[in-house]
Amino acid sequence: MIIQVEEKVPVDLETEILKLKKELNAVILAHYYQYSEIQDIADFVGDSLELSRKAANAEADVIVFAGVHFMAETAKILSPNKQVLLPDLEAGCSLAEGCPSDAFKEFREAHPDHIAITYINSSAEVKALSDIICTSSSAEKIIKKIPTDKPILFAPDKNLGKYLIKKTGRDMLLWQGSCIVHETFNQRKIIELKLKHPNAKLIAHPECEEPLLNEADYIASTSGLLNFVKQSTDKEFIVATEVGIIHQMQKACPDKIFIPAPKNDEACSCNECPYMKLNTLEKLYLCMKNRSPEIIIPEDIRLKALVPIQRMLEMSL
Ligand code: 13P
Ligand code: SF4
To answer: Structural domains in the chain?
Structure first.
């Protein structure tokens, strides 16, 4: 792709990014919800748990994180001696933003006997106040390891929380947050779509609301959904998660059909995560060229947040 950047110099962004990657001894990690050209230039594309493991074990000097802020923050917490770059610092997450650390602290203090299991979609400050972090791919395994007499408080995603209560049979106290992308899928339109495509399997991320999950044939994290379509003998899938993942599904299974789940309003692009989509190839290039924006975390917060993240990495093995 040839585009003009600030200095009005035409730049072949892919070539320049690869050059900078060598110069910086950098690794580019990307989430499945990134634009396809970013996924294609990344060294690794994965779900939140896989990306955390990659960040923890990276040998590069610089981690360029093509994802959202909490993901890059987790990478910095795990790899404090590496420079962690995020193409756009505004790339947040509605779940993390809906759970401010002062309110979370009060929630915890109101239930001192509860163990706090916190979804990775949260700020470093909230992680620092938590006992164990989890991702959508590791939560069930982690919850099943908590002694049954220990009450659990789960934050910030109420939809994932409700799904986990059903899966594990554990009664958890839920923070009432949600993802603005996954709650926009329209259940009635999905049922219509299923009737139109009777052979299509509905696959969904557990951040979706309960009525939609009740209709789903398979529920998993982004990587879990990708693995499912790869090994399935079915040919058609309705995909109820952010549309970016369809790029990898189509690449892995060119003969299969992937239908994005219908939104409430056809005119909007609300099945795209507006935060994830703030990162562009141009911003990726610029952050590497300028070595900024960079993730910086106060050391006291980092050390406190590291403990529950490490517990997640150990308990999800
Ligand atoms: P995964 O861990 O399944 O990739 O989910 C991350 C996320 O933000 C989903 O909205
Ligand atoms: Fe957060 Fe939802 Fe975007 Fe995932 S899709 S990063 S949960 S706002």
So the answer is: 13-91+276-296 (3.40.50.10800), 95-180+303-315 (3.40.50.10800), 187-260 (3.40.50.10800)
